[in-house]
Each structure stands twice: as C-alpha cells, then as structure tokens.
Amino acid sequence: MHPNSAFRPRQDYLAELLVREIGFAAIFAGTPDGPRVAHAPVVLSDDRSSLQFHLARGNVLTRHLAGANALAVVQGPNAYVSASWYADADQVPTWNYIAVEMEGMARKLDDAELIAQLDTLSARHEARVGANPPWTRDKMNPALFSKMTGAITGFEMRIAAWRPTVKLSQNKSAEERARVIEGIEATGHGALAQLMRHLGGDREGA
Questions:
Q1: Domains of the chain, with CATH numbers?
Q2: pTM (predicted TM-score)
Q3: Is residue 117 a contact partner of residue 52, using CB atoms and an 8 Å limit?
Q4: pLDDT in tens, 149-161
Q5: How many CA within 13 A on the CB side of residue 17?
Q6: How far apart (Å, rounded) are the C-alpha atoms in residues 123 and 109?
C-alpha cells in the first residue's frame, strides 16, 4: 500500500471490482525456506469476505499455506510517468499503478469445495468468452478429470484486511494530470489513461 492517503480509493466497490475483473493474483506466504509467491486465478466470494484459488501440488507454497497468514495481490494497469510531462522542472519520474492487497488466514479446501471452485471459475470466464455452449467439466472423462484435480490443491483465504492503492497522479494539479494522461496514452497505455480520466480526478482520493 502506498503511504500517501491521496491514493486510497474513495469508492468502496472499486477494489472488489478490480479483483473480479482481473481475476488473477500473486499469493505470498512465508515458508521454512523463506518467502515464496505463487500465481493463480482467484474467485472472490459474493460478500467479498474470502478469496479462493488453487495451486499445483508440486508448488512449494502448497504444503505451507494451510493455517498460514497469506497475502494476495491483484495488479491492474501501470505505466512510467516521465518528469518531462510536468511544467515544473524540479520533478522526478514516477510510476502510476493500481494494486489491491488482501491479507488473511488460508485453509485447505476439501475435494467438493475444490470442484465447486473450479466450476465457478470456469462458468465466470466461459461467460466472458461467449462460448456457445460454454465448456463444463461434464464434457470430460470423469476419471481423467478426477486425476487432473488430484494434481492441484484448493485454498480459501478469509480476508482480514483490504489494502488498495490507486496511484493516478491525484496529488498533481488538473493541468499536470492532463499532461500525464496524454503522455501515458501516447506511450501505449490506453487503459490506464482511461482510468485516470474516470477515477483520478479527486485530489483527495481516486
């Protein structure tokens, strides 16, 4: 989380929206061999109280996550900000970005919970891609599906803390922000430029 309070989103729904829209996170936890990270698709519960994901059984985090305090990070668009875009020469380059941190205790899912997670995950993303008919596990050989799910482990993290950062030049003047938006868009980061237009106009928060 960025220490500047200007970069806290004022919209309560924004962090949840980003997690659902991006749907992929880096999962961090400590192990006897030091901190480790895994990368996984995630499913946020309807009441935003928990985050589910699954890892390969061979992943080093898999055998250490159950009962551990974990950190999940979802990253959104980001881009370099050139100091040359500011009118004041006494400025330095920086980086604009969006990130959502979620912290909580993880538990291992049982087989039924893991399958339910996989069904939810595929249903949500099949709806996005517009497959007709959508893929479901019913299309697979049940024995093969069982063998493949046996190679992964599901987890649920109860979210104790949300820490979103929406750093979109809110601490700059409207004129400076306009130049930054133009520069970011010109360097090929159209999504971030659009977010700056829609979310970053309030200098007290995104």
A1: 5-196 (2.30.110.10)
A2: 0.90
A3: yes
A4: 999 999 999 999 9
A5: 8
A6: 19
